[in-house]
Design goal:
By secondary structure, the chain is an alpha/beta fold. It folds into 2 domains: about 70 residues, UDP N-Acetylglucosamine Acyltransferase, domain 1 (3 Solenoid), CATH 2.160.10.10; about 40 residues. It contains 2 helices and 8 strands. Strands 2-5-7-8 form a 4-stranded mixed sheet, with no helix packed on it.
């Protein structure tokens, strides 16, 4: 059996939340944050946040944001994606409503013309 690295490496200024599970020969890079209770199976790049099961990498952060960051308010990439999808859905629904209203106006105008004949 070959000797190889099997345990995680944690670089400088890293925050690891409670019950975080770091599996395998991964590296958590400088200034990264690992949220509470994620399962991390891939490297965590510097200045990013890993949250969720399995852990997903969230947007980066700067030093000021890290000081303000509360573990109960870590970014959630899945929630961010859902928020984006819901906003897009709202835009589509508004667009469809406006088109429906224009079509309804055209139908009403056509019916009025037909009644005059």
């Amino acid at each position: 059996m070959k000797k190889k690295k099997r345990h995680p490496t944690v670089d400088n200024n890293v925050v690891i939340g409670s019950n975080a599970i770091l599996l395998g020969a991964i590296t958590v890079r400088d200034n990264a944050i690992v949220g509470a209770a994620p399962i991390v199976t891939h490297d965590v790049p510097p200045n990013t946040t890993a949250v969720g099961v399995p852990a997903k990498i969230s947007l980066g952060h700067n030093a000021e944001e890290v000081k303000k960051l509360d573990h109960s308010k870590l970014p959630d990439p899945v929630a961010d994606a859902m928020k984006f999808v819901l906003e897009e859905q709202k835009k589509l629904e508004q667009n469809m409503y406006e088109k429906y209203k224009r079509l309804e106006e055209k139908i009403n105008a056509a019916e009025k013309l037909e009644q005059r004949k």
